[in-house]
Amino acid sequence: FQVLLKGASMADLYDLTGLVLPNTPRFETNGRLTGSLEPERAVWEYTNFNGKVGQSDLHGSLKYTSGKPRPRLVGTMTSNQLRLADLGPTIGAGKADAASPDPSPSPKRGRAPRGKVLPDSKFAAERWNAMDMDITFKGRHIIRPESLPLEDLSLRAVMENAQLKLAPLTFGVAEGKIESQVSIDGRTAPLKAQIRGTVQGLQLSAMFPKVQLMKKSFGHMDGAIALESTGSSMAGLLGEGTGEMRLYVRDGTLSKQMLDLAALNVGSIIVGKLFGDDKEVHLRCAVADFTVVKGLATTRVVKMSTEDAIVEATGTIDLGTEELDLRIKPESLEWKFFSLRSPLYVKGTFGNPNVGVEAGPLLLRAGAAVVAAVVAPAALALVPLTVPAADDDTHCKPLLDLGKQPVKAGAKGAAGTESQPARQAASKAAPAAR
Fold first, then answer.
1. pLDDT tens per residue across span 354-378
2. Is there a single domain that holds both residue 124 and residue 196?
3. Would residue 155 count as lying in a domain?
4. What confidence category does residue 251 fall into, taking pLDDT thresholds of 50, 70 and 90?
């Protein structure tokens, strides 16, 4: 028979059915429900259902089997038009659909605390031992702001004996992909987690689709991250993570005009101060290599090589307090290309960063774009690149060689604030004194 399900959040079905489902915006589904009873178990199938979660369509089939040691839910779901905002409550960010007539939050539904960026809603891990599951989901097309180049999403979520694995969790981004594997052990308090991810072949031209100047760029971005952590929320896991992360960019174009068009206001200020307001800068390569200890990311090597200069950043990013403490120093190959020789400082928080010049507080307003432009924590880190043209570059080759070092989670990845390969890369990439 046909069954209509609807409510403020799928997580609310737990009290009624025992199903362990994530927080969502208001949902409504309609499908065929069939069941069979056996001596030691019952089987229920909810097949060919169609509906909406928030403003995203949802289709699929699910099968629930009772029994020991735990009931089990398996199935597949797809969304042809997945609205990015509807994913927010799943990770503890955002809120239920504004169109919902019942805005009352479900237990544990939440978002980042006031003034914070990372979501701090706690995982409902006390429910995880109530059910095992194996669910695959595909979001064929992500509806998002034009400036955010997310394309699609696919994941497999497996939970067994209160241990949750998202493997793979893959976003199509800028004609490339960000693929991660996340394991969270819900049997311990606080939760234990391992996070590994790669950034593969993000095309710079596709990352800024509204910017005409970037269409000339054939460069790409790659990376990797490996962390071990404990915590009870997304923010908590990042704030306690230990390991390393690495980011590489090759062959791009920068200019104040381009960053203005991309609405990266702080990035445009920095580029304007370093290179001048009218200059178009060819980016040969850039690397951001960090160790992470208990959520504190410390620079090993963060450098950008252009035709005219090496720009280096040193300092820390605290993923727990969301505080920035970075120093950006231009190392000129030819000082005539620079309109600013003093280092820049990036301080403040993720939500309210501040940029200043060493000589005085000339830049009082900032935006999070400086982090993306210089250290890219949102993209998180990178894997080896095969870049024949850059391999011959005096400054890029040692930086790209550094990318061949695998990232490691835990104490092995965080060992030392600066690894031997990182020290060698920094030394070789530094311009000769003039």
1. 877 765 433 332 333 333 333 333 3
2. no
3. no
4. confident
Phi-psi region of 243 (alpha: psi -120 to 50; beta: other; left: phi over 0): left
Claim: this prediction has a pTM higher than 0.70:
yes
What does the alpha-carbon distance between residue 177 and residue 200 come to, in Å, rounded to a whole number? Answer: 5
* 263 and 303 housed in the same domain: yes
C-alpha 328/C-alpha 217 separation (Å) is 24
419-424, long-range: CB within 8 Å, 24+ apart, which pairs? 419/300, 422/289, 422/300, 422/301, 424/398
For residues 379 and 427, state if they share a domain: yes
Other C-beta atoms lying within 10 Å of the C-beta of residue 75: 18
Give the closest residue to 203 by CA, choosing from 238, 164, 252.
252
User: Which residue range forms the structural domain that includes residue 67?
Assistant: 1-144
- For the chain, the farthest-separated pair of C-alpha atoms sits apart, in whole angstroms, at 85
The Cα 172–Cα 150 span in angstroms is 6
In a domain, 291, yes or no: yes
Instruction: Looking at the structure, tell me whether residues 124 and 208 fall in a common domain.
Output: no
Task: For strands 56-65 and 220-231, give the pairing.
Answer: unpaired
Where is the domain boundary, 144, 173, 196? 144
422, part of any domain: yes
- What is the spatial distance between Cα 128 and Cα 56, in angstroms, rounded to a whole number? 26
Radius of gyration for the alpha carbons in the chain, expressed in angstroms and rounded: 24
Tokens of 319: 């993923």
Kindly tell me the burial class for residue 130, based on how many C-beta atoms sit within 10 Å of its own C-beta (0-12, 13-18, 19 or more). middle
Last residue of a domain, one of 116, 144, 172: 144
How does pLDDT run across 21-61, given as a tens digit for each residue? 999 999 999 999 999 988 888 999 999 999 999 999 999 99
Neighbours of 146 (CB within 10 A): 7
pLDDT at 97: 43
**Same-domain status, 131 and 174:** no
What pLDDT digit, counting tens, does each position of 136-157 carry? Answer: 999 999 998 877 889 999 999 9
CA angle (377, 381, 387) in 5-degree steps: 130
In a domain? residue 152: no
**What does the alpha-carbon distance between residue 270 and residue 273 come to, in Å, rounded to a whole number?**
5
Distances (CA, A) of 406 to 62, 198, 247, 294: 39, 11, 12, 20
